[in-house]
Amino acid sequence: MTTVEVKNLRKSYDDFLALDGVSLTAETGQLVTLLGPSGCGKSTTLRCLAGFHEPNGGDILVDGESILNVPSNRRKFGVVFQNYALFPHMTVAENIGYGLRLQKRSKGEIETRVFDVMKLVRLTGLEDRLPREISGGQQQRVALARALVLKPRLLLLDEPLANLDARLRDEVRWLIRDLQQQSGITAFYVTHDQSEAMAMSDMVAVMKAGRVAQFATPREIYQKPSERYVADFTGEANFLTAQRVQPVAEGRYSVHVAGADIEVEGVPGLLKNAAAELLLRPESLTLVTTGDTATFEGEVIKCAFLGASLHCEIALPEGGRLKLTAPPNHEVGAGDRVGIAIDLSHAWLMPEVAP
Ligand SMILES: Nc1ncnc2c1ncn2[C@@H]1O[C@H](COP(=O)(O)OP(=O)(O)OP(=O)(O)O)[C@@H](O)[C@H]1O
Questions:
Q1: What's the predicted TM-score (pTM) here?
Q2: pLDDT in tens, 132-143
Q3: Is the beta carbon of 53 within 6 A of some atom in ligand 1?
Q4: What is the number of other CB atoms lying within 10 angstroms of the CB of residue 105?
Q5: 3-class DSSP state for residue 134?
Q6: Residue-range domain boundaries for the chain
Q7: Domain ABC transporter spans what residues (predicted)?
Q8: Is any ligand 1 atom within 6 A of the Cβ of residue 44?
Q9: Which fold has domain 4-228?
Q10: ipTM beyond 0.90?
């Protein structure tokens, strides 16, 4: 059982404010991802959790108690970084058992626990190799095993896949998620890779310049972003200016967009005639014959045939452009007039300026 509550965390490096009030929570057994571009404060947040940095304000509660006065080595957290920092002169088994030796565990206990965790991370057979004699993916699994063998209360992972190639990244990613779920360990995971965050997490904190722009499930972050920054960072997105915003129910609005009057869901609390824009993910748009069920009509600007699909860009009459993906059997090209049907249940209205 480990719950974590990060409350209004602030951290400055000299006069630079790296964390400007970060708040988020992790329930027992959840994997919470800190997602955002370089420099937004992900690693600083993780380092404050690990106890490597002392925050200037705010608090971190673990199971309801502040840990700010607990030194890093007494927090009982497992930490895995992108550079695995294995001891080069120790074998794989010695690297994994290092923390247990520091704890002065018996030789028998160390052997059993190292053996068990090696099996868990699928390293059996590599006990006597040196780090330079195994692959990058295997080295990262040693780093993971070295953290897990100590049965940490919390697992902290900072871009653990960054140094691996695409295939290995996939493999180690699923291994981490499997192990984390099987063991029910609460974990924080830092990445700037949106698809990694979406695939692995129970909750995602999208960070922006030292703050959390949105903290929600991957689905919510993608489908119901709080602002354009979040929508942009989590996948392909089209934005159209929305006029005549009129609330019709809580979180529901009628709007005029690109010549059409439609009713859509959106960020709650938008006022009448608020400056707003409509988010349309490419997969919620379908190319149709003009006059069919078209919500919008427009002119094809360009269309690329990619084998399995067509990628089209369409100009709308009142300005604005839409990118969409169509099945490859559509015979459309630049200059054609087309209709675009929108899955309105997946359209999302957001304020034009971030709250
Ligand atoms: N030790 C330090 N001294 C001074 N400034 C620092 C220090 N560590 C980080 N910073 C600055 O604080 C900000 C946040 O850094 P942080 O490493 O937390 O970002 P990040 O989101 O993890 O980025 P990345 O993905 O590049 O690792 C950055 O602008 C960085 O330059």
A1: 0.90
A2: 999 888 898 899
A3: no
A4: 15
A5: coil
A6: 4-228, 236-351
A7: 4-234
A8: yes
A9: Rossmann fold (3.40.50)
A10: yes
